[in-house]
Amino acid sequence: MSRLRTLCFISAAFFLLIRGISAAPLQICKFKDGKQAAVSLTFDDGTRDHLTHALPLLKQYGFKGTFYIIINRVRQPGKAPRKPSRYLSWDELKLFLAEGHEIGNHSMTHRCQLTKEKSMDDVRREINDPIPVFREKLGIDVKTFCYPGCANTPEIEKIVKEHHLGASRSRYACGGPKFTLEQWKRYMETILSNGEDAAMMIHGIVPGGGWSPFPSLELFEECLKDLKQREAVLWIDTCAHVFAYKLLRDSSVIEIRSETPRRITAELRSSCEKAPDIPLTLRYNGPERITVTQNGRPIPVERKNGTSLFAVFPGEFILQR
Length: 321
Description:
By secondary structure, the chain is an alpha/beta fold. It has nine helices and 17 strands. Strands 2, 3, 4, 7, 8 and 9 form a six-stranded parallel beta sheet that branches. A five-stranded antiparallel beta sheet has the order 10-11-17-13-14. A four-stranded antiparallel beta sheet has the order 1-12-16-15. Strand 15 (about 300-305) and strand 16 form a beta hairpin.
């Protein structure tokens, strides 16, 4: 009887061990690097103060922005206008791309909100006609769209997604004569507490620049300083990168191929027809010391808040513990 109890104890311990292994799941993180929320700095309309003021400060603080351009307002080469244009030229927009910023689609004319256009054919032209122009002038395929006046419907959104990853999501208006650093900080706390992916909607940087500018350049920089202090918990990136991550995240699952006490062979599988060529951050709630490889290459692993974080592309990967 004593021997039977011993065998039962060993069998139970082994079962609990295996169960413990399975209870340490692999999970897809909501945001890159396991961050709590995501924020994109978006700049609408393509005014010159984005070049003279926003671009240097973004470089100084290490941020990449999304600049939404209205095709018919881009300053054209050739005959000089009667008065200086406050809008950027195509050559100037190339400077933004050279520094790693995103150029996005803000419609053909921005003559009114898309919900007020006379027909859906007009809506489609406002959304889609800029695409070949961006390709011709800048050599890019725009990834994201910004609704003029933030107005849209499910039908309009469907048209946008035919040729874009998506359109600007929850947007927090920044600027205007009464805008303060305290308001900016309230925005940040709301975004973090709700775990949002949000866009800071910026037009003018300084008085005399774009629409509804910041009261001063100093305030704009103070907001960037506050953002910099939140990098540990906040993913700050372009709309295109955030949208691509979300698209892959929401279409992916982790499939365990095999599992032993020492090794997990798994696959990150996506149902997306054209999955973005980006990695997803995975979280592993298991032993502290692990190694991860994909296609024979080691993957960096970061230990954070008692879990391991690493980024893999769709496909098979191996976790050793």
